[in-house]
TrEMBL record:
Organism: Pseudacidovorax intermedius
GO molecular function, one term: phosphorelay sensor kinase activity
PROSITE patterns tied to this protein: HIS_KIN (PS50109), PAC (PS50113), RESPONSE_REGULATORY (PS50110)
UniProt protein name: histidine kinase
Residue numbers bearing the 4-aspartylphosphate modification: 630
Gene3D superfamilies, per the entry: 1.10.287.130, 3.40.50.2300, Histidine kinase-like ATPase, C-terminal domain (3.30.565.10), PAS domain (3.30.450.20)
């Protein structure tokens, strides 16, 4: 039997030493380990103590020895391979191995990278790949005594590389199918790794791959593109531009100047360092040329608009203090820019609709209508922001739980601020309810989160928190608000913060720290005006380099969130009842649209253009179930006065006010009386129809409201 006691030269060998000592060497050609040649002992000691995967083959039969690191590579051979002849251990690979061994024994050592072998493994016969080197071992007399093999299995790496190449090819095919032009640049020299066909179509047929932008597109010298690429690579900050002019060679005469919308997006390696730039965009030359033609056709209209804007700027300049002049210039420039853009979208769409209709080309009509409607909605939103900061907007307050409002907006906010910003919400338990215009509060919350995002260009955290607060008399007086219970909604960012000078001006109308064209300065002013109009307050706490907290405080309302909304919605979905609606509006076009819309739903319609005419109809015996009236009416009687007069003889008459601009006193600064509602112009016709249906089916909604408020 073999001696289980480890011999000294095998010390430190771990499992490999155990396998050597566990073998019976009695009849083995090499004999017991203690009697092995000194060269074998020294070489084997080196192998079993090495952390690298090593093999030692000794003697004419190349008896096979290995260390612990090599054991996982043996597969099913590990139990018997120690000391066995090489040809027995690797019987399934001899055809490939023997030529390599012969070269090594002849003194021609070789190294192979990722060489393929078909071998028996724990998973059966399989394709494997190996990186290894074979070299001979000479004894003291210079005779070949054995073979040393340094090896590692690279199957996983080879397969991963193949999968990566396949994935890369799929990505390239996907990029090729994407709309717009695409290029991928690598390194600080901006070397082309990929371009799609759309990129080649713009730049012309050239040799791109492996060459730098400066080499491929020398005509860009002096146009600013080289500098922009260098800036994005150095800073890691994306850059985007719209309708950027670019002069290109290899194009037909008169077509060298193109206009592109493009994005330079940094590409980062696994360590987070910028390693290249993704270039994407669209050739918008035809759109720009069409806009120029349209602008020329509408020159007179544009001149009138610009003249009006100049008069507005002059009037504002005369009214504002000298220290506000720069802010006013920023505002009017932004408004002129926005309104000119929106007006161009509306008039251009109408012109194209007229032109295509005259030619009987109906395919694109819907698209032009959608463009005009979208521009009109954006113009309405801009007007709404102007009214908000002046506290002249018409509010439609509802009882709301702010925790529920925040929860409903989390997904929208997270998408808006982007993945670089961590979003956290902290909702107070048993939060009080408040009476507030829900869309206005949602808009304020979203604006504050966007401001927080803009203050954290390198990422950070936004925390939205709610709480119940009691404002004492001293604090209330200092803030210009009433003492008592308030619901607090705060937004905190970890951004750049504000200096005391900026904080002092933050709520001033038109004040902004953003570049021209990127802000009108109405955001915080709008939120301030909305909070004041709702009976609350807004305050800011900020530290430079630490972050900013903006807190909106709204009065507590002793009531539950309006559970009747579901009942109203169900009632609104029912077929329209046989009801008569009186529409009062001094603008014939608006009145005609409302009448036509409601007539299509089956209502009986009456109409009037002023208060006295409408009052005569209300004084008659005619059935009238709902009064829809503009607030600002000619004839000495506004819409609220008309409604009050009508209710003296028709006390249960339901009223829907529609208004584009009105002092709150005209419709009441608090919640409207029962059976009354308000809509702000402009509105979609389907929204009008839904609101009318809600009001004419009010008995079911009122019953739901009564049930929801029992026990308060």
């Amino acid at each position: 039997m073999h001696d289980p006691t480890p011999v000294p030269f095998l010390a430190g060998g771990g499992r490999a030493t155990e396998l050597i000592l566990a073998r019976d060497w009695t009849d083995h050609p090499l004999g017991p380990p203690a009697e092995w040649p000194e060269g074998l002992k020294v070489a084997l000691s080196l192998v079993v103590n090495s952390p690298e995967s090593m093999i030692l083959c000794w003697g004419p039969a190349l008896h096979f020895f290995f260390n612990d690191t090599y054991i996982p590579l043996l597969g099913p051979r590990v139990g018997w391979a120690m000391g066995a002849p090489f040809d027995e251990v690797w019987a399934d690979a001899l055809e490939q191995a023997h030529p390599i061994i012969a070269q090594a024994m002849a003194g021609h050592s070789q190294r192979f990278n990722d060489l393929h072998w078909k071998l028996a493994t724990d998973r059966g016969q399989a394709d494997t790949w190996w990186t290894f080197s074979y070299s001979r071992i000479l004894d003291a007399q210079g005779e070949v005594a054995g073979l040393f093999i340094f090896t590692n299995e690279t199957t996983a790496k080879v397969q991963a590389d193949a999968a990566l190449r396949e994935s890369t090819e799929r990505q390239r095919q996907t990029l090729q199918q994407m709309p717009g032009f695409i290029a991928i640049l690598s390194g600080p020299e901006h070397r082309f790794d990929y371009v799609n066909d759309a990129y080649v179509a713009i730049a012309g047929p050239r040799q791109f791959i492996g060459r730098t932008v400066r080499e491929v597109l020398p005509e860009l010298q002096g146009q600013g593109f080289y500098e922009l690429l260098d800036q994005v690579y150095a800073s890691g900050t994306p850059y985007a531009s719209q309708a950027m002019p670019i002069q290109l060679a290899h194009r037909a005469p008169g077509d060298a100047e193109r206009f592109i919308d493009f994005l330079y997006e940094p590409i980062r390696d696994p360590a987070g360092q910028v390693s290249g730039i993704f270039v994407g965009g669209y050739d918008v030359t035809e759109r720009v040329r069409a806009q120029r033609l349209l602008a020329e056709a509408n020159r007179n209209l544009e001149q009138r608009v610009q003249s009006t804007v100049r008069e507005l700027m002059a009037a504002e300049a005369a009214l504002r203090h000298s220290q506000k002049m720069e802010a006013v210039g920023q505002l009017t420039g932004g408004l002129a820019h926005d309104f000119n853009n929106l007006l161009t979208a509306v008039t251009g769409s109408l012109e194209l609709i007229q032109r295509h209709a005259a030619r009987g080309r109906w395919a694109d009509i819907d698209r032009y209508v959608a463009t005009a409607q979208g521009a009109a909605r954006r113009a309405a939103a801009l007007t709404h922001r102007l009214l908000a900061f002046s506290r002249r907007q018409t509010l439609d307050p509802r009882v709301v739980n702010v925790n529920e409002l925040v929860a409903g907006m989390v997904d929208l906010i997270r998408r808006t601020v982007g993945p670089a910003i961590a979003l956290e919400t902290v909702g107070a338990a048993a939060l009080w309810t408040t009476l507030v215009d829900v869309p206005q509060l949602e808009s304020a919350l979203l604006n504050l989160c966007i401001n927080g995002r803009d203050a954290m260009p390198d990422g950070g955290r936004i925390t939205i928190e709610t709480s119940n607060r009691w404002i004492d008399a001293q604090t209330a007086e200092a803030r210009g608000m009433q003492p008592g219970p308030y619901v607090s909604l705060s937004v905190t960012d970890t951004g750049t913060g504000m200096t005391p000078e900026v904080q002092a001006k933050a709520f001033d109308p038109f004040f902004t720290t953003k570049p021209i064209g990127q802000g009108t300065g109405l955001g915080l002013s709008m939120i301030y005006g909305f909070a004041q109009q709702s009976g609350g307050h807004v305050r800011i706490h900020s530290e430079v380099g630490v972050g900013t907290t903006v807190c909106i405080e709204l009065p507590r309302h002793l009531g539950m969130p309006q559970a009747q909304a579901a009942a109203v919605a169900m009632a609104a979905q029912q077929a329209p009842p046989h009801a008569t609606v009186l529409v009062v509006d001094d603008e014939p076009a608006v009145r005609r649209l409302m009448v036509e819309c409601l007539t299509e739903l089956g209502y009986t319609l009456l109409e009037a253009g002023d208060g006295p005419s409408a009052l005569r109809l209300l004084a008659s015996e005619a059935r009238i179930d709902l009064l829809v009236s503009d607030v600002g009416l000619p004839g000495g009687m506004n819409g609220r006065q008309l409604a009050d007069a009508a209710r003296t003889t028709r006390p249960h008459l339901k009223v829907l006010f529609v208004t584009g601009y009105a002092e709150n006193a005209l419709i009441g600064s608090g919640q409207l009386a029962s059976g009354m509602a308000v809509m702000t112009k402009p509105f979609a016709m389907d929204q009008l129809c839904t609101r009318v249906q809600e009001l004419v089916t009010a008995p079911q909604a009122e019953q739901a409201r009564a049930q929801s408020t029992q026990g308060l």
